[in-house]
Fold these 2 entries.
Entry 1:
Amino acid sequence: MTGATRHDSPSQNPQEFWEGRYRDAERVWSGRPNPSLVHAVQHLAPGKALDLGCGEGADAIWLATQGWIVTGVDISATATARARREAQRQQASAATRFVTADLARWEPDDGPYDLVTASFLHSPVPLPRIAILQRAATAVRAGGHLVVLSHAAPPPWVDAADHPAHSFPSPARQFVELNLNEHDWLVLSIQTHTRHATAPSGEAAELTDGVLLLQRR
């Protein structure tokens, strides 16, 4: 989950906001897996995975095509319905399950997991992001991995000064905020990646992703 519209309101109900965001567009995301996620997990042995804020399912479906058994969770029923249809189209239905739930209250129900991912779990309306990630981290089995992708900088076509409520913490800062027991976790990667993108105007641009990859000891 990420992004904003001109109808943003800090007091808006998250379920209403995200359901409206998906319902008002035929497609919100590209349908391709996030390159930084692919780079982070492509060498991991497949197992059971959890995708937080799965949106229209691109990351979860890609994981399924790599041999993972995946549960994707998103607050928007429209998003998860699209994810199910796309999984069926790509013949990945048997390896995917999509759940409509508010991550602020949802408890992982089929763990423990070999992999928990959260790709750009940002929201322009209130979302207890750190608490969600901390809860999910407890569902990672010993030897399993936690991957958190984030926006490490604003898009070049956006003036950050115009959006003071949005923050872009570094991966290192996010690790500190997660406050995980360092005796229980091994840090495999804390870095930023740049990737090519297309600005709303159609011009080529670069985005900066924060990548946090941890392994439970």
Note: The chain is about 25% helix and 30% strand.
Entry 2:
Amino acid sequence: MTQNNQKEDILTTDAPSHRSQQVTRAHNQALILAAAEEEFVLQSYRGATMQGIADRAGLPKANVHYYFKNKKNLYMAVLRSIIEEWNDGLVTMTVDSDPKTVIEKFVRTKLHQAFVNPSRHKLFAIEVIGGAPHLHEFMSTTMKDWVNDKAQVMKEWHKQGKIGITDPLQLLILIWATTQRYAEFEIEIVGLMDKTAYDAEDEARAADFLVPFILRGCGLE
């Protein structure tokens, strides 16, 4: 066998192994992040432990340290994944996008996330209420840049006569407040509806009220 053929055989053999390692890594990281999210919600950052997170993930504690080094890194990874998921609904918006389509999609997406993953909203709320000690730098840099970018697009929409609002930041705050409330104050809301938990129709009921309400406020009836 020639030297070139030997190299080709090695590459062919190693490629599937490398892909398998990537799949395993992604799977383990997802397990750990999900377990950490639950642990932080139930025990708070101070009360959560790497061992508790490992137990919830069904993995050795050493694996948790291998992927995330320490509790602070893991906590930050959880918080950032939450924010990235929330912001994803506006990632592709441009000055050429249809405002009504973009805003409706964002409201419905944020509302769906609140009903499907209420613990994520509660964890974020706990961090912010506590003064955002772990997120302060992120919020004042990355998050602020994201907001400014989206606000600039909305201001351009206003200049083009596509939208009626002149203060995009207030619109974003309104959407965050109205959608996340369903998760953060779940107990209060289900109690006011004489229920013990949300049912399949509650998300649609909320969306059918909020979407046209917000669109009217934007001059997009």
Note: The first helix runs from residue 3 to 47.
